[in-house]
Every structure is written in structure tokens, then in C-alpha cells.
Amino acid sequence: MRAPPALSASAPRNGSRDSVSGALRRSASSSSTAAAAAEMSASSAFIDEKGGSASEPEYGHDPASGGIFSTDYKRHDDLKEMLDSNKDSLKLEAMKRIVAMIARGKNASDLFPAVVKNVACKNIEVKKLVYVYLVRYAEEQQDLALLSISTFQRGLKDPNQLIRASALRVLSSIRVTIIVPIMMLAIKEAASDMSPYVRKTAAHAIPKLHSLDPEQKDQLIEVIEKLLADKTTLVAGSVVMAFEEVCPDRIDLIHKNYRKLCNLLIDVEEWGQVVIINMLTRYARTQFLNPNINESLLEESSEKAFYASDDEEDEDKKAEAATLAKRKPYVMDPDHRLLLRNTKPLLQSRNAAVVMAVAQLYFHLAPKAEVGIIAKALVRLMRSHSEVQYVVLQNVATMTIKRRGMFEPYLKSFYIRSTDPTQIKILKLEVLTNLANETNISTILREFQTYIKSMDKDFVAASIQAIGRCATNIGEVRDTCLNGLVQLLSNRDELVVAESVVVIKKLLQMQPEQHSDIIKHMAKLIDNIQVPMARASILWLIGEYCEHVPKIAPDVLRNMAKTFTNEEDIVKLQIINLAAKLYLTNSKQTKLLTQYVLNLAKYDQNYDIRDRARFIRQLIVPTDKSGALSKYAKKLFLALKPAPVLQSTFKDRDHFQLGSLSHLLNAKAAGYQELPDWPESVPDPSVRNVEIPDWSKCTSRKDRKEKKTEKPFYSDSEGESGPTESADSESDSGSGSESASASDESGSGSESEESREETESEDEEEDEEKEKKRKKRLDKTKAKKPAEESAESEQSSGTEDRKRGRKAVKNQKSASESESESESSESEDESEEESEEESESDTDIRKKKTPISKQPPKQSKKESKKERQEMSLLDLDDFEPAPASAPVTPVNFLSSSLVSDLEGLSLTNNILAPTTIAPSGSIKMYELLHRITVHQQHQLRDQKPAHRGAQAAVWDEDPRVHRDRRVSSR
Amino acid sequence: MIHSLFLINNAGDLFLEKHWKSVISRSVCDYFFEAREKAVEPDNVPPVIRTPHHYLINIYREKIFFVSVIQTEVPPLFVIEFLHRVAETFQDYFGECSESTIKDNVVIVYELLEEMLDNGFPLATESNILKELIRPPTILRSMVNTITGSSNVGETLPTGQLSTIPWRRAGVKYTNNEAYFDVVEEIDAILDKSGTTVFAEIQGVIDACVKLSGMPDLTLSFMNPRLLDDVSFHPCVRYKRWESERVISFVPPDGNFQLMSYHISAQNLVAIPVYVKQNISFFETGSSGRLDITVGPKQTMGKTVEGLVVTVHMPKVVLSANLNATQGTYNYDPVTKILVWDIGKLNPQKLPNLKGSLSLQSGAPKPEENPSLNIDLKIQQLAISGLKVNRLDMYGEKYKPFKGVKYVTKAGKFQFIRSAIFLSDKSYRIATLCTISLIF
Fold first, then answer.
1. Do A9 and B17 touch (CB under 8 A)?
2. pLDDT at A494 (0 to 100)
3. pLDDT reported for residue A854
4. Which residue of chain B has the CA closest to A170?
5. What's the CA angle centered on B414, arms B413 and B417, to 5 degrees?
6. DSSP 8-state symbol, B249
7. Which of A238, A474, A484, A587 is deepest in the core (most CB within 10 A)?
8. What is the DSSP string of A124-136?
9. Residues within 8 A of A (CB atoms), B 374-413 only
10. Where is the composition biased (Low complexity) (chain A) (predicted)?
11. Contact B41, A421 (CB under 8 A)
12. Chain B residues with CB inside 8 Å of A352's CB?
């Protein structure tokens, strides 16, 4: 009969194969025993049915084919019996048969009560199959599905992580609205599970719950926020996927995890990499400046205006723009660089989706000079499966329009092979056409010529179109192409001729005077060509340029009038058109013909043609009724028409994120997130820092000279703070740079102070010390500077106080991992606004001061160079704890920033020895606050002793808590 | 992400469906069938089909369409790549990915699909993790299972799932520890009639079969790594080491896998092993034609060319061929219009030749296109690019493994001849180009 089912999971006795179908039939007619039915495996049942239904319908098995429902009932009866039995093997057999039914799309929902009973079965395979069944039918049988819930709840507490995870998976996959609260609870619990695998499952469950009940969004966002802070690679991809589905617009949640994601990226599994890279592309578009900004500035002359707005944000820029009145050299944000650097090796991934994701990231984010590296990888993908080629070629086509140079070296990789599927051929043709320029056009044209001989007619037509496009784009070869196309007019294949006619028509429109012989030649062709589009094109050409062919044109019209009734609609319209134009230029010869044609058209079946005839008659035949328009008929018809622009269909497609479904379809797909435009100016870096607990989002073009002196301060917390270590180490540079900028400011330090203040907001201790410092400095500035300055600083310190109050509240919340996410973000927003206001007011003042600060900016440039070098030397894997990288000198960060402030005041670049500062009263207050939050943490921990490990893991992941602890223990 | 999956065979029967979110009626596949009909050839079905409420992303593999249903924005390559991974997993489990094997193992297929995606997002696609979760069917195991009643579903979380090297499971043990590497190279070339290379490139892969106990850390180095222009790696390879030292350092997956693939595009490095002299012409009158093909060795580096097969795609009007081969056998299939000439080993002393006449359909116009010509061949013990493995070192384990590197030579894919009209000079000129693709 067939090969023994050796491969099937649980093989029945091989000899009984024939008797199996026999048994089947028996079970259909007379209710056979469960034992008999148990002999068959699900797979054999599947096969028998398929095979059997051809020769002899097996009513018992296939309700659709049989249609005898009573027998169908009986068969399900014996399945039920098997499910009710005590033997696991019988249950397994039954479940396998049921799953086979589901796989074929047969309805097995009437077995629900029998199946759901087995959800607590000990046999893990039975259990899994029951899960499969449940997920499939729970939505239809909500009430019965509830019976299984308690089992899952028990499963959630199982010591085996696989069982915990699968219980959560199934629980969250059952789309029963009533269990939403249970799901929510389960997700929350699983999000702090010890096992990263369970946490990953929790991340997967988030979008499920969200789609079931969108009202849970706020709570889910909290879970997402928590999981985003997870440091394991296993979770990262899944949680970003959840983020993308639930709250893709909450870009603020990413800030603090940005560096971690960048650094983990290479170790995340492939699918997660794709999702993370796509998300980070969007993120970077909102947070960094366009790296090609200078080039775009060259083109536009809005340089000045641009800087004016930019300056408000960034003191460096402003200083330069004002003093040098020159273009500011663009220096990439280190975070921007980090992203580009960490994604680059992934171009070597075996997974085409990852390569494409990196390619689009580079295309959208990288400076022009660096985008080229993706070409090679994309060309490599072209050797993959044809579906992959299809998608890649679409993207390459879009890229070639924007950045032609990138793919020029790989021109030959786009040559078409006769074995390519047509859709691939046409896309390759598109790419080749886009790549054509003066230097390679001859090669490309020669290649095109070979394509015209292909047997694939669609492809031939596309090739001819492509030649036409090359001809319009590259003036030098226009005549060559035209000659070639004219030669094609004598081709034996009508399709080739027709397509050539259409293309020639477009080309001729560019310079009709020189080519009246071609028009004549084409006029002769009208007798032979039957393809409507081509006929219509010829007629249009003759009509349009009837003055070039005054003798032939009326004759053509005469011929066409004869065959008018048999023509296709588009041809008829063009005959009317031709008649009208001839009537206007040569009414003597064609008056009667025109009237004849118009009369024919008047009684045509197609109303478009009737309408057109009526319209044209009114226009060209002067009657007493005809209005003023007929005077202008000639102008109307024989106006100079602009030549059509033969454009690529891929033009401007790059406003869709490349590699996305929307890009492929050239239409917005559901759930597509727009790729934001680059910000006009750097999103205020200081505001960005507020949201980052590791205050690591340092801004660009600032030196890291002070890095080393500051490091030690962080290194105490480094060991504990898991995922944010690298962020910590980098953050030093950020703060260092601020101090540098402060020195650049030469006196206007209060502003940079302001921004730093925000950077470090969650670190109360620092806040206070700074506060003190500020007071000191304020005193100094007051003494030193005129009234305007002091007014400014007073203003800023005022706002600052307010802000700090708010921040304290916020910190408390975040420390206790609170719920009111939205609130905190609100307050963040406010602070953003505030800081902008401040910076604006600052700049006003600074403008007057800038001349003084000529010297410092230069220095900072030098320093920034140094910093860049350092960056490139940095290890890609620098997310590993690297505590010893900087010499440990116990210098307080705050004091050094104070130092820089002081430097700023004194206009020197020497780093003063850090001064020690005695704590003031306000500090204590904040300490108290923090003790409270820490207390809460402790309580939290005590509540769940069972999950202590997991809690500890979470603990580790929140560096804020450490600092808080440190504060309290002081 | 991926909502549902439908498997459809070449005849248009939908034989398996799986939903990861709520059920989508299989009637959604009607849009696919429509596109399938329009496309004529299965290759030409657009990979992405838009329907009013869904998007269908499909791949065609082993005569099966894998049609997935998408509802929201997702990178199409993500889905395509995943579907291919599904097909590969089936192949891995059942030896081949065909309709009958899928039907025979429908329960395992279902369990696999359940593990591979969760809510439409890939969960476990690494074959070694899957194999711990769901054991592949073997005769022995199914016997044991029926006797002992144990199942082939794993009860604990695969070790790989939690580690940073998900491709390898812990506790692998072998009595014979061995590691084999096959360097397989393939040339794609376009040659014109005079034999000059218009375009040539080498695509190579290194397939590995590693059966080593424990957690070995391997380092593979090449004599001439500079040759490698563009490489892509299995995720186990450390990118950094490659970039800095040009060595391949990795903890290998257990069993067979493709370690890397590379690409050499510099034309001067690509040697063309054979040349073809061919003359196929059709007479203006008499509805007949003449064919004369000779194959000879070119740059074979002293190795023998084997398994030489020439395939000619004749124009539709060619009814039959009456030829004479000095070596090997030829066969013309009048239905597919393909002439196959199986030469075998290439003897440089006596060049194989195929000569004779072609008869055309009477009354039909002389075919314009020149027939395309494909070549298959094999060369043993040679990597045409000259790539050589230097050494393989193992760290992390004490035992001494048996190591082997093979430069595999297999049959190549194709070569074709094209004719062209040159638009610039008004006369017709025939240029013949051929593409050779060989596997070494």
C-alpha cells in the first residue's frame, strides 16, 4: 500500500495498515470499541483518509466529503471514549487524530468538553496537544475554556520553567475576555520571573493581551518598561516587539535603554535583531541630527536661518556661527555612532532580514560616505531565494534612485539571466535603468539589446520601455536609442513593434522637427500593427505633428475612417483626435472626412466616444451657437505639449522605511510607523538626559577630557548595575563634556549648569551639591558680571528649584517601579518645555558675550577630535563591565563639574583641584525621601520570598536603586 | 506578525493550516489562487499579495507554497526568511520537505509550528533547540515510544534556549570526535563567443559537519583569507575576530550546518575551466538547421573535468535533432525543447564534439533567438579560487578530534548563449554570450 509509517510519531503495527482503514469503516458503521480505534495513529488516519477518499469515500472520517452527520457523530464518540480512558496512550492517539483534523481545517469543536478535561494530563505530549486544541477553539467556546484556567494558574507556579512558560503562553493565547485580569496578573508576575525564558514569554504575551483588551494598555506599558530594562539578550527582541505593537510612539521609554540595546544587539537572536534595528532606526531619526546636513545645506541657502534656530539649543554651534559665520562642522553624536558601529557587523548575518534591516538603517541614518558598505551585502542577498531577491531588488531600486553611485560597481550583478522569473527580470531591469549614466550606458544598452530577443514577452516589453527611459535620461544616446527602436519597428514580433511605437512616441515628443522621417515611417506601419495601444500612439503622433507630414496625414485619416467601427476604443478616440487636428490645420482636404468620423462616433456604443465626438464637434465646427471657445480651438488642440517624463516607479518611495511592507506595496500598510524626519535641531540633549537614569546620553562634539577624573565616582556602582554599565562609563564623558562646554561658555556657565542639572536629575545627592555650587558660583558671577547676568542666573535657579521638586517626586516613583508612568512622562514634558525657555533666554544674553569665547571653541574642537579617536578604539563589546579601564582616582564627579564651572568663570582650561563640599541641609531632606523609596523596595522584596532571585535580578537592573541605597547608607 | 500559515501544493490543494492568532478563514487563499493562475509559472507568483484586509506573503519551495497571512506592517523579508526556515526545519526533521512527508508527520509538523512561533513572532527556530523540544522521528524512537509509552516531546527547557549560544546544547558526547569541512565553490560567468569573460564571480560555501563532545571552541584559519571579498556567517561565528584577525572563531552547532558563505568577485581570480565552441544556425529555407558544439579544457589547474553535461534550450520551432556525438550520449526532448548532451569525463587529447542537423517545423519562420546553452561539470579536489584552509584549532576541550577538509567539486548549474542586435549600427550582429556556473 505505502511505505511503512516509520516516520510517524507512534507507529501502529505495520501489518495492520490495511486493517486500519477497515477498522475505520467499521467504526463508522457500527460503533467500534475505543481499543480498535486506538490502533491507528493520527498520521495513518490522515493518510488513509486522503488516499481513501479518492477511491472510496470514508464517511466516518471526513464529514465534508461524507456529509452523513450521524456517522460523523459516532466517530467523534469514539474519540471521546478514548479521551475519557485512563490510558495515556489512548489519549495521545485521540489527540493526535484531533490535531490532524485541525491541521486540515476540519471542525473538531464539538470535542471541546472531552478535550478540555485532559488539560491536567500528566503526559506532556498529550498536554501539549491539548494546548494546541485549546488555543484553536477557546475563542468559540469561552465558557468551557474557563474550566482550564485553574490548571494554567497552577502551571504558572510550577518549578519547571518550561511548564511555567508554556502555561503563560497558552493562558495568554486563549482569547477569552473574561480572563483579562488573570492574564494581566500572570504577565506581571512572569515579567519578574527568575527565568529569562519565562520573561520572554511574558513579553510575547503583552501584545496578545493588548489585542484582546486595548484598555489594559497603560498597565502593559509599565510591564514593557520593566522588561525593556532587562539585560538578557533573550528578552530584548521580544520586548521590543511588544513595544512596537503596543506603544510604538512611546519613544521616551527607549532613551534609557538605548545604549544597552545597541550593545546587546549582536547577541540577540536573529528575529529580535530585525525588530530592534527597525525600532532604533525610528528612534535615531527623532534623536539625532541629520549626518548629511551640511550637504543639504549646500544646496539650500537657508544656512543662516538654520543656525539661528539651532543655536538656541547648542551653545557650541552658536559660538561658531556667530564668530566665524561659517558652517559648523557636523560631528556625529556618539550615540548615533554607537548604533552605526554596532549594527555594521550584522551585515554579515546569514539572515536576509537582518541584513536588510541593517541596510535600511544605514540608508536612513548613516552619513553619505558610509552608506556604500551596504551595497555589497545587498548584492550578496541577490543570490538567495527568488522571494528574497524580489524584496531586495525592490529596495535596491529605491536606493539606486537616491544614491546611484553606491551600486555602480555592482552593475554586472544585476544582469539578467534567462532563468530568472519574470518579476525578478523586470526589477533588475529597473535597477539597471536607474544605474545608467554617460559612462556605462553603452554597456547597459548592449545588455538591453540581448534582452529584446528573450522569449518572455512581458520582459521584452519592459526592456523596450527601459531603453526609452535611458534615452530620455541620457541625452547623448537619445539618437542611438531612437534608431535602434526604429529598427525594432521592422521586428517580426508584433508585441515588440507595438511597445517600440509607444516608446518612440514618447521620445519623439522631445524633438519632433528632426524626425519627420520617423513619423512617416510609423505612418506606414499603421496598416500592419494591430496592437491597439500602438495604433493609438501612431495616430496621436501623426495628429500632433501633422504639419511635418502634411501629405500623409489626410491619407491616414482616410484609411482609419474606413475601419473606424472595428477599432478598439482607445484607437477610436485617437482617430477623432486626429480628425479634429487635421480639420483645424487642413480643413480643405479633411472636412468631409472629419464629419464622417464624427458622425460615426456619434452613434458609437461607448459613451466616452459619443461624448468626445459631441465635444469636438462643438469646438471645431463653427456654428452660430458655438461660443467663444471655438475661436481658440486651434490653440487648444495644437498647443505645445510638454514631453512626458519617463520616471521610475520607485521614485520617492524612500519616504517609506526601506525594507518595510509599506515600501514594497508603495502604500501604507496597517500599523506602519512613519519614519520621522530628522529634527531641525538637536532635540535638547539635556532634556533627553532627564529621562535617562544613567544620564549617559551625552551630546556630541564635546570632549571627554575629564572622563578619567570622573570615572571613579561611577565605578562604585558599576559592579552592580548590570545592563547599564557601559552607559555609566560613557556617561562620564557626557558630564565631562558639559563641563567643557561650560568652559567654552566663558562665564555663561549657568546655562550649562542648567542642562547638567537635568542630566543628573535622578541623582539627588548631586543635585544638592550642585545647588550649593550654584549658590557659590552665583555669588561669584554676581560679583563679576553686570546685572543682566545675575538676572539670568536667578531666573534659571528659580525654575530649577521648581523642577527639582518635581523630579524628586518622579524619582521616588520610578524607584519604586510605580504605575503612574504617564504622569511622570508628563512632568518630563514640562521640564522639556522649561529648559527650552531657559535656553532661549540664555542665548539672548550669550549672544552679546560670544566674542569673548573665541578661543575656547577651537580647543574644544581639538578635544573632540581626540574623543573621536578614542571612540573608534573602543571595544565593540564594551558593554562588558570594564571597571579598570580608567585610573581610579577618587575624585567626586560633582566637584569636578563645579570645577569646570569655575573654570568657565575664570576663562581658563586648567582643571582646578576638586574642592570638597560639605553637605547642606537640603540634602538630608532628599535622603529621607529616598530612604522611603528604598524601604518600599525592601517591602516589595519581603512580600515575595519565593521570587527573591528574580526580584534581585530586577534589583540589579535598576541602577537608580543602587545609588539610592548608597545615598541612604551614607 | 505572522497570523496564519497555509500549505498549498502545486495542484492547488490546501493541505495544512495553522493559526497563531484568531482563526482566519481559508477563503483568504482565494486571492492567492487568483494570483497563482495569473502567474502561469509557480516562480512568477508575486511573493507579496495584497488583499482587502490581509497581506499574503508566500514562498514556493519543494513544490509547496507556504502562504502566510499578515495583518499589519512587518518587514517582508522577515516573513520570507522565516518561511524558508520552516521549510528547512521540515527538511531537517523528515529528510525532505514534501507534501507526503508533511502529511505523514502532521502532528510533529504541528508541534514544530507551535514552537517556532508564538503569537506570530519567532520563538525557537534553531534546529538544535527544536530537536530537544520535539525529537525528530526515527524508527528506533517510535518503537521505543510504543513500548515504553514515552513521548517524543521534551519535558525540560532546552539548554540552548537560555544560553548565549542557543545553537549548541550542553552535554554532547561522541566516542569519535570529528570535524569535517567542505569547501564548495561555484562560478558564475558570462563569456562571449570568443571566450572572453564578460562577467565572472565565485560563490563559495563552507559546509561543516562537526561531531565533537562538550563545548569546543574552534578556530579555522585560511592560507589566503584576503581572497574572501564578501562573507556571511552562521550566527556562531565571532564577527570581531574575523574583522581583526581574519580567522573564523566559533563554538559550533552540533551536526551539520553551513559555517559561512563567501563571494569572490574579482574577475582576474576567476578561472574558467572549459571553453565551448558552438555553431548553431538555421537556414532561411528548407526548415532545417545545423548544430556543431565542441567542448575543451581551459584552466583546469591540472585536474580532470568530470560529469560534463551540455544542455541546449532550443527554440520552439525545432522539431527533432539528428546528431552525432564523438563522446557520450545526447537526447532531445521535443516537448520541453531541451537537448541534453551527457559527455562525462573530459579528455583533453580527444575533444568531445556534437554535430548534426536540426529539423524545424515547416513553414514556421526562422527562429530569431539563438538557443541558450547550459553546462554542468565537476572538478574534484580543487577550489577554483585557490582558497585553502590553513588549520583548525580547538580550545576548551582536552581530547584530540579528527579533522578533515575537503574541497568538494560538484556539478555546475548553467551556461547560456545569447544573441543581440546592436542598436547603434544598423546592421544585425549576433553576439553570443554564455554563462557558466560551476560548482567546485
1. no
2. 74
3. 43
4. B118
5. 175
6. E
7. A238
8. HHHHHHHHHHHHH
9. none
10. 1-12, 732-750
11. yes
12. 77, 80-81
- Residue B163's pLDDT is 64
For residue A914, the one-letter residue type is P
Report which of residues A493 and B15 the model is more confident about. Answer: B15
- Read off the C-alpha cell for B15: 493541505
Q: What is the pTM of this model?
A: 0.69
CA B246 from centre of chain:
26
Measure CB to CB from residue A665 to each of B50, B234, B243 and give the nearest one: B50
Verify whether the Cβ–Cβ distance A670 to B71 is below 8 Å.
yes
Predicted ipTM beyond 0.85? no
Residues 166-205 of A with CB under 8 A from B: 169, 172-173, 175, 195-197, 201, 204-205
For A143, other C-beta atoms within 10 Å of its C-beta total 9
- A244: Cβ contacts below 8 Å, ≥ 6 apart: A275, A278, A279, A673
Cell of A598: 464624427
Mean pLDDT, residues B215-221 taken together: 88
Check if B104 contacts A (Cβ < 8 Å): yes
* B368: chain A residues, CB-CB within 8 Å: 453, 492
For residue A298, pLDDT beyond 80: no
Are B198 and B190 contacting, i.e. CB atoms less than 8 angstroms apart? Answer: yes
Report helix, strand or coil for B5: strand
Is the predicted pLDDT of residue A14 greater than 80, yes or no? Answer: no
Residue-by-residue DSSP string for B34-81? HHHHHHSSGGGS-SEEE-SS-EEEEEEETTEEEEEEE-S---HHHHHH
Whose cell is 464629419? That residue is A595
Query: Which is nearest to A352 in space by CA: A407, A289, A308, A396?
Result: A396
Inter-chain residue contact A136 with B21, CB threshold 8 Å: no
Distance separating alpha carbons of residues A242 and A240, to the nearest angstrom: 5
* Cell numbers that stand for A508 in this block: 519623439
Q: Distance from A732 to chain B by nearest Cα, in Å?
A: 26
- Contact check, Cβ <8 Å, B60/A5: no
**Which chain A residues in 458-517 lie under 8 Å from chain B, judged by CB atoms?**
467, 480-481, 483-485, 487, 492
Residue range A486-525, pLDDT digits in tens: 888 777 777 787 888 888 888 887 776 777 778 888 888 7
Q: How far apart are CA B90 and CA A392, in angstroms?
A: 26
**Residues written for chain B:** 440
- Residue among B313, B365, B426 whose CB faces A492 most closely: B365
**Strand-pair partners of B330:** B341
Contact A449 B422 (CB under 8 A): yes
pLDDT digits (tens, 9 = 90+) for B356-386: 888 887 776 666 666 667 777 777 777 777 7
pLDDT surpassing 90 at residue B254:
no
**B121: nearest CB among A11, A92, A204:** A204
A883-912 CB burial, b ≥16 within 10 A, e <16: beebeeeebbbbbbbbbbbbbbbeeebebe
Nearest to B77 among A43, A353, A446 (CB): A353
